[in-house]
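Q: Could you fold this chain for me?
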Amino acid sequence: MGAADADIEVPVLVIGAGPAGMSTALVLGRLGTRCLLAERRAEVGTLPRATGVRVRTMELFRAWGIHEEIAGRAVPVRDGGEFTWVSTVAGERFGTTSLARLEDPAARRAATPMEVLFCPQDRVEPVLLAELRTSPPVDVRFSSEVTSLRDDGDGVLAVVENRVTGAVTRVRARYVVAADGAASPTRAALGIGLEGHDARAEFVNIDFRADLRPYVGDRPSVLYWVLNSRASGTLAARDGRHRWYFGVLAGGATPADPADPESCLRIVRDAIGVPGLPVEIEGARRWRMDAKVASSWRSGNVFLVGDAAHRFPPTGGFGLNSSIQDGHNLAWKLHWVHSGWAGEGLLNSYEAERRPIAEFNAAQSWRNMDLMAATGFTPDVHDFAAQLEAEAETGAGQQPLRERIRRGIPLQAPQFHALGQDIGFGYGDGSSAVVADGTAVPLGRDPEFEPSGAPGRRVPHHVLRRGGSEVSTLDLVEGRLTLFAARDAGAWTVAARAAARSRQLPLHTQRVAPTPDADLYDPTGDWEHHAGVGGTGAVLVRPDGHVAWRTSTPAGPHAEAELGDVLDTILSRRPR
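A: Sure. Below is the predicted structure, expressed as structure tokens.
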């Protein structure tokens, strides 16, 4: 079944306009590859969901020109973001920690030009959509549900039904990106299973409006862990003023019923600790906390990204961020294959690279959830909360449960301050799109961040000067294949241009040196050390900002052939 059977033909069909799907489409559009983005909802930004936007995602938003808009929509915070344990929001406080107390600001500034923000998903999605609307290659269609996919090996025929009019459109796509959420109908239709930890706890998330400023001030905590026998769970700020959501654990004395607004109203008031508080319930939904990763991320010409490929507990805040980074990794590869610059084998590196990261993030998030038990948060939290209340009635004597919470709060640091997990990961030996040199260090539990130019790692952030203006190395690589050469490595730039030209590949070269006449002036002279190339080597960086190849040796007489082999390897090209 070919193009003649379709109403529309596009290189890529993206299913789902959540953060993963919109990020995939946005990168494709920025690179110039046409795609159709089909979303079954009538609009985006309908649910708050994730809140934390970590620095690697903020680096991508910076590259896409939307970081300032995201920052303007973020929750106003104190001390980089506070996290507080309470009996009720208006009641007893057991303890607080904050990102500012946990991180080393100077180390973070040396590692990245960005910082963690707390901007709920329903405030992120409209920004992504607005940017998509400016991209001519992207056709965004709402109320559009993909009802079937047929992969014939040369592409996929999709049936897209308009949920308002009932009109059916047949779309022929070379590739399909399924970003259709944790329940992913596409994943189910493909028969792809999930592996990992089964659900341990059930929650009801309640979205509501209320003026909590009398109880939280102008800069509230990002999260409140509420411990009382009637309503134990997590209260999250959606705008820091009037919009909130409360995730209540099942099992309280008066359980929340998503279909019963009165029960949700009662639960919210119990969590805040103000019986007559004016509250507007906006919605409620039930969900189960598990940690699972899809057993396969590709079936023929169909790829899974985001929540369709992995589900994490929110402890650590890596679900949204991993989803966006999945799309970023896959989109440039689709573009390069579609453009004829890379072979089909490049697409196999998507799962080889992103799945191990998802498995690591799932394990870390699950471990972070286990650590919450030190502060009383387990599936039996309501029983613990009842004991806390009984302890309070005994007066000001021994209070071991409150002391347990205070001792447990510092143990939660890994889910708040996780710079190594955020930007210290790399793509290892299993990837065909990286020429490993044996220097990459696998992530261990709670990894400390160390800048590295090792193949597979994100290129180290370093502030350089170009034309009198400061620029980060990260600003120079988005969407382009780039070779950075050290001060005495001009021969590597010549060889790289020749190898790329003979293969008709787009490639940019930059010489970095502590002299003003260089393409990029390094006032500190430290870039060579951070990149690990010495004064005569070079580093090749992929369009997603990850290092593909590195050398510290001078370019020899066969440098062009060497770089040609590198390009053929990382792009899965057949040598000409």
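A (continued): The first helix runs from residue 19 to 31.
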